[in-house]
C-alpha cells in the first residue's frame, strides 16, 4: 500500500514547488521542525485586511513534506485568515479518514502513520504563524 | 542462504526475503535468547532472590548465570561489576551519575562529535549539576575521532566519554590512544559500546576503560535490557541512582543503607527474563567464530561501499575503507531525501534501512547535512541483501532524482 505514497500526483505536487521561497517583508514568520528527521519549514505570511495576501515557504524535507507545503501555499494564499486557521485541524481530520477533496492526493499517507508528521509539518508552521499573529493583536 | 540464519527465528519460513539492514538500531533476536526468554516466562517465572521454592531458585540461578555470561563476554574481573540496566542509555546515565561526584566546578568532560545523544545528554546534565563543562574531540572528514588534536584538549579533563564505534560512520575508536591520554591526565574513561557489542566479545581489561555500557537489543538479545560494567571501586564509591527494592541493606523510615554493587544500581525487580535471554545471546555470541564473521562483514561492507561509490550522486559519510570499522555505512542520494529512500527501499525492494539524524545531530552538523540513509550489517546478512540495497537505490534514483 505504501507504494502509492510515491505516486505521480504526490511527486508532481512536490516538484511544483508552489509557494517555495521567502517573502521580502512578511507580516509574520514561523519555523517548524520535525525532531524525528531534522526536517524544517519556514513559512512567511503577508497579511492585509484579514486576508493572507501572500505566502512563501522554505522547505527542507522529504517529498511528502514538500508536496504538503505546496498544498499549503495553494489553499492558504489569497484566502482569509480565519479559513487558514482551520487548515491544521482539517489535515488532521483528513488523515484520520474524513473526506476532503483538497488533500485527496495525500490519501496513501493515511496508511503510513509514521509519515503523518511529514505532511502536517507545513500546516503546523502555518498554525504557529497565525497564533503569533493573534498574540500580537 | 547464510547458514547462520538458522539461529534467527525472524528468518523462519519467510514468504518474501527479509533484507534487514537496520541492525545498528536493533538486531534480530537469536534463537537461544528467545528460547531462554520463553523458558523463563513459562517454566521458571518468579521473582529472584526472595523466593525459597524451587521455581524461584531456578530463576535466581539463571539470573546469576546471565550476570556471569555478561562478565565473560566483557572479560570483566568479577560479576559484582556487572550492572543490569534497561539498555545503553540507562547505562550511560548511570555512568554519569556515578562519576559526577568527582567533578569540581570548572572541570571538563571530554566527549566527541561522533557521540549518540545518549552519550552526550547525560554528560551535559552532569556538567550542569556540577558546574563543569563539556569539550568535544573533533571528527575528521573520514568520520573518525581526530585524536591528533587530543593533547590540546587536555586542560582540566576529568572524564572522557566516547563511543567505541560510531553508529553513523562505523569508525572504531582507537581506545589505546585514549587510554594513554587518560593515563597522562588522570581522567576516567567511559566507553559507549552500544554499536561495538554486536560485533563479538570484548575485553574491558585490555581496553583499559573504567566504565562500559551496551544494550541487549543490538546484540541479538531482547529489548529492555543492557549492561553497565564498571570498576568495582568506582561503583562502590557512588551513591545509588534510583531508590527501591533490591538496592538496600537496611531501611528505616528516616534513612537507609545501601546494598553493595551491583545491586545498589538495580532498584526494583529487574527485567529477569530479559537478563536471562541476554545471557543466552551473549553465550551465543561467544560461541561464534568472529574471525570468520568479521571477514564476512568486511567483505559485505566493501561490496556495499564500492557499489555506493559507483552510484551517481551518492555521497558516503565517513571512510570508504573496510579496516577499523564495523559494517555501518551512512550515505545520501543527491536530491532524494533520506526518508523517501527508506520508504521506497522497503515498499518496493524489501530492504529495511534507517533514515534520519541517527541521534547524532552534532555529527550531522559537522557533515553539513540533516539526515542520512544508514545501512548496517549483522552476521545473518549476505550478498543478496547488499545487492537488493544497491539495485533498489538505483531504481529510486531513476524514479526520484
Say which CATH homologous superfamily of the largest domain in chain B is assigned. Type I PLP-dependent aspartate aminotransferase-like (Major domain)
The domain tally of chain A reads 1
- The assigned structural class of chain B equals alpha/beta
Q: Shape of chain B from CA axes? A: globular
What sort of overall outline of chain A do the alpha carbons produce when their principal axes are compared?
A: globular
- CATH architecture level-2 label of chain A: Alpha-Beta Complex
**The top level CATH class name of chain A:** Alpha Beta
Question: How widely separated are the two ends of chain B?
Answer: 33 Å
Under the CATH scheme, which class of the largest domain in chain B? Alpha Beta
User: Quick check: average pLDDT of chain A?
Assistant: 92
**Mind telling me the C-alpha Rg of chain A?**
14 Å
Overall mean pLDDT of chain B: 95
Largest sheet of chain A: 3 strands, antiparallel
Q: Would you give the CATH topology of chain A?
A: Sufe protein. Chain: A
Helicity level of chain B, as a percent range?
25-40%
The oligomeric state is heterodimer
Biggest sheet strand order of chain A reads 1-2-3
Q: Please identify the structural class of chain A as seen in this structure.
A: alpha+beta
Strand count, sense and barrel status of the largest sheet of chain B are: 7 strands, mixed
Low-confidence stretches of chain A: none
> What percent strand of chain A?
15-25%
Explain how this protein is built.
The complex is a heterodimer of chains A (137) and B (401). The relative contact order of chain A is 0.21. Chain A has helices at residues 8-16, 63-76, 81-84, 87-95, 116-136; strands at residues 28-34, 39-48, 51-60. Chain A has 137 residues and is α+β, with helices and mostly antiparallel strands. In chain A, a hairpin with a 2-residue loop joins strand 2 (39-48) and strand 3 (51-60). The radius of gyration of chain A is 14 Å and the shape is globular. In chain B, strand 3 (108-112), helix 4 (121-130) and strand 4 form a beta-alpha-beta unit. Chain B folds into two domains: 32-286, Aspartate Aminotransferase, domain 2 (3-Layer(aba) Sandwich); 289-400, Alpha-Beta Complex (Aspartate Aminotransferase, domain 1), CATH 3.90.1150.10. Chain B has twelve helices and 15 strands. In chain B, helix 1 (31-44) runs antiparallel to helix 8 (272-286) and helix 2 crosses helix 8 (272-286). Chain B starts with 18 loop residues before the first strand and ends with a helix. The radius of gyration of chain B is 22 Å and the shape is globular. By secondary structure, chain B is an alpha/beta fold. Chain B has helices spanning 31-44, 54-74, 88-100, 121-130, 175-185, 204-207, 232-237, 272-286, 290-309, 338-349, 361-366, 383-400; strands at residues 19-20, 82-85, 108-112, 133-137, 157-163, 188-192, 211-215, 226-230, 248-251, 256-258, 314-317, 328-333, 351-352, 354-356, 372-376. At the A-B interface, loops of A face helix 10 of B.
Amino acid at each position: 500500500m505504501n507504494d502509492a505514497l510515491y505516486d505521480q500526483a504526490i511527486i508532481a505536487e512536490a516538484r511544483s514547488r508552489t509557494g517555495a521561497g521567502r517573502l521580502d517583508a512578511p507580516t509574520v514568520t514561523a519555523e517548524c521542525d520535525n525532531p524525528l528527521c531534522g526536517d524544517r519549514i519556514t513559512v512567511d505570511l503577508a497579511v492585509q485586511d484579514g486576508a493572507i495576501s501572500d505566502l512563501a515557504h522554505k522547505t527542507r524535507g522529504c517529498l511528502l513534506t514538500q508536496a504538503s507545503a505546496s498544498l499549503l501555499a495553494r489553499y492558504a494564499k489569497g484566502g482569509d485568515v480565519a479559513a487558514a486557521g482551520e487548515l491544521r485541524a482539517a489535515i488532521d481530520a483528513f488523515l484520520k479518514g474524513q473526506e476532503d477533496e483538497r488533500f485527496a492526493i495525500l490519501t496513501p499517507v493515511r496508511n503510513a502513520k509514521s509519515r503523518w508528521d511529514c505532511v502536517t509539518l507545513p500546516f503546523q508552521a502555518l498554525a504557529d504563524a497565525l497564533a503569533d499573529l493573534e498574540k500580537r493583536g | 542462504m547464510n547458514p547462520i540464519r538458522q539461529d534467527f527465528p525472524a528468518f523462519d519460513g519467510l514468504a518474501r526475503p527479509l533484507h534487514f539492514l537496520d541492525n545498528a538500531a536493533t538486531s534480530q533476536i537469536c534463537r537461544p535468547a528467545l528460547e531462554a526468554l520463553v523458558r523463563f516466562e513459562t517454566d521458571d517465572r518468579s521473582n529472584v532472590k526472595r523466593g525459597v521454592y524451587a521455581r524461584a531458585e531456578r530463576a535466581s540461578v539463571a539470573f546469576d548465570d546471565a550476570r556471569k555470561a555478561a562478565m565473560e563476554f566483557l572479560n570483566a574481573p568479577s560479576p559484582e561489576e556487572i550492572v543490569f540496566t534497561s539498555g545503553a542509555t540507562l547505562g550511560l546515565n548511570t555512568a554519569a551519575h556515578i562519576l559526577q561526584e568527582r567533578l569540581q566546578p570548572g572541570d571538563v568532560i571530554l566527549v566527541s562529535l561522533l557521540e549518540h545523544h545518549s552519550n552526550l545528554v547525560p554528560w551535559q546534565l552532569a556538567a550542569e549539576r556540577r558546574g563543569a563543562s563539556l569539550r568535544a574531540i573533533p571528527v575528521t572528514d573520514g568520520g573518525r575521532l581526530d585524536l591528533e588534536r587530543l593533547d590540546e584538549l587536555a586542560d582540566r579533563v576529568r572524564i572522557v566519554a566516547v563511543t567505541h564505534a560510531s553508529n553513523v560512520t562505523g569508525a572504531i575508536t582507537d581506545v589505546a590512544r585514549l587510554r594513554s591520554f587518560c593515563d597522562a591526565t588522570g581522567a576516567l574513561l567511559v566507553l559507549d559500546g552500544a554499536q561495538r557489542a554486536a560485533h563479538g566479545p570484548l575485553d574491558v581489561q585490555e581496553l583499559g576503560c573504567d566504565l562500559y555500557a551496551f544494550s541487549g537489543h543490538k546484540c541479538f538479545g531482547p529489548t529492555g535490557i543492557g549492561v553497565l560494567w564498571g570498576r568495582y571501586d568506582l561503583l562502590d564509591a557512588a551513591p545509588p541512582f534510583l531508590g527501591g527494592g533490591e538496592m538496600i541493606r537496611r531501611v528505616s523510615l528516616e534513612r537507609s543503607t545501601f546494598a553493595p554493587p551491583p545491586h545498589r544500581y538495580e532498584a526494583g525487580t529487574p527485567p529477569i527474563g530479559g537478563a536471562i535471554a541476554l545471557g543466552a545471546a551473549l553465550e551465543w555470541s561467544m560461541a561464534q567464530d568472529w574471525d570468520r564473521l568479521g571477514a564476512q562483514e568486511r567483505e559485505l561492507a566493501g561490496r556495499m561501499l564500492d557499489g555506493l561509490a559507483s552510484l551517481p550522486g551518492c555521497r558516503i559519510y565517513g571512510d570508504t575503507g573496510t579496516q577499523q570499522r564495523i559494517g555501518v555505512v551512512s550515505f545520501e542520494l543527491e536530491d532524494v531525501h533520506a526518508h523517501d529512500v527508506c520508504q521506497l527501499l522497503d515498499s518496493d525492494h524489501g530492504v529495511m534501512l534507517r533514515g534520519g539524524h541517527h541521534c547524532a545531530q552534532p555529527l550531522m552538523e559537522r557533515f553539513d547535512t540533516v539526515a542520512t540513509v544508514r545501512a548496517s550489517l549483522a552476521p545473518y546478512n549476505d550478498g543478496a541483501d547488499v545487492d537488493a540495497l544497491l539495485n533498489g537505490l538505483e531504481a529510486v534514483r531513476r524514479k526520484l532524482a
